[in-house]
Amino acid sequence: MAPTLCALLSLAAAAGTGKPPMLDLPEAGLVRAWERAAGQNVLAAVNPNVFPGYWSVCADGQGFGYGNTYPSLDGHQMTDALLWLGQADTVKANWDYVRSFQRPNGQLPLAILPGLAGKNIGNNTPVDPNGGLYRHWVPGDPLRALAGPTYIQNADVIFRFTQDHEWLAAQLPSVNLAADHLATLMAADGAVGGAGYYVERPTRVEYDGVAQCHAADAFQRVAALNRVAGKPDVAGRYDDLAARITACFRTRFWAKDRFAEYIHPTRGPITSHGLTDTDWAALALGLASPGQAVILWPQLKDEKRFDYGGMPAGIATRPEAYEPWEFTHPDRQDLAAMGRVWYLECQARARMGDADGLLASIRKVCAEGERHGYYWRERYGAQGGFGAEKYCEYPANLIRTVQRFLLGVEHRLDGALVLAPTVPDSFWAAGFGQTLAFRGRTLAYRMTREGVTGEYRGEGPQRLLLRLHPAARGTPVQCTIGGRPAAAAVEGELATLTLPPAPAGQPCRFAALRAAIP
Fold first, then answer.
1. Looking at 373, 406, 439, which one is the last position of a domain?
2. pLDDT tens for residues 335-367?
């Protein structure tokens, strides 16, 4: 039977100290899939009996090895999802564990495999005596650029959710060291090496387009964290690295109407597989110039060939066009739809304001979960799911996608909370919202075509930035806090107001409404 909301809360309490959001959406099937992704998959994967802060990448705790940790890619997907579910203590404990495997040069492991410590894996590739896997067994050593950005992404979201300045100050030297190691993969022109960013087969030797986008994003994040910590000179250095990667990507990777999937050292730019995840990443992470985005977006928006077996999102629209030389390992397992690509698709759709396309994509993932008892496979092809069963990638990214892109919730570095949804008009007409618990605070809100109403509890003031219904933008904002008129500023398309402290027994009710709604 489906877990009730009470059961979900119980699972969250067992996994950590926080509370998950309580969704109020006009689509019951979406809410049900989200709750099952949270309770039956992500929270179920947490197992402090292995060590405090441990989670598996599979809901059954067995897939990919009991007790193994995968800090690269999976580490961020799970970290971010668990933070949305209120599990900051679990996430911090996992961070400490992963950090203990960082080498003096800043390198972090792709995987931590205690049972294989000091042994060989795959093609006679050694696992470090500490259990860390620092080099991939697939010839070409893909995933070299993955561990550093994952670690930086985790530092960024942990700080955003917790606003723990002491934690940031203590961790920043390690974060900067990871960024410095990432910088060693850069060529003189700014291209980032490392072969496949999150794929192994095809190996994408040597400059993966997805890696360019994630590396630039990682340097931007670490620069912002250094500014928060009062280190503007260090921040400037990382901003410069991000700018170099972006400039190289916009010129060297651009192929007139799309981006090269990757650049091979001798064969040059590879563009023979149609549109690819590099194109999604370019829009999602902002590396495409405005002019390039104008050319690219109409091609991506309604492209159905990214769905493999009905599931978003595959790595290319012409997977049949890959050639044998592009694989350094016998199988072709990554010619598949995967949650990592789907997340980029959803991020790009939100960035481009495509509410209908975003919701349609989310519905496909929810429907696949419903058909299989709300478990998802690792990969999907034309014949359906394959790879690990009860894999947490799609569930974790469903949690993240609904929060970050559909509902548009963002915890800013300064502690402000943004509510900037990308939803179709049916949501605005019916009304939607949720109850969020964060940093000892609670915010319950509901949004409609007329604006937003809500209730806040917290010991400190809370700044809100609100994106209202599109038809309401450009009209005056009428705000009330505690039943009294309140001033609201406007930042671009966001209305802003600051809620006063409100102890638990004295909630602060607020409203931000627009006049003259057509």
1. 406
2. 999 999 999 999 999 999 999 999 999 999 999
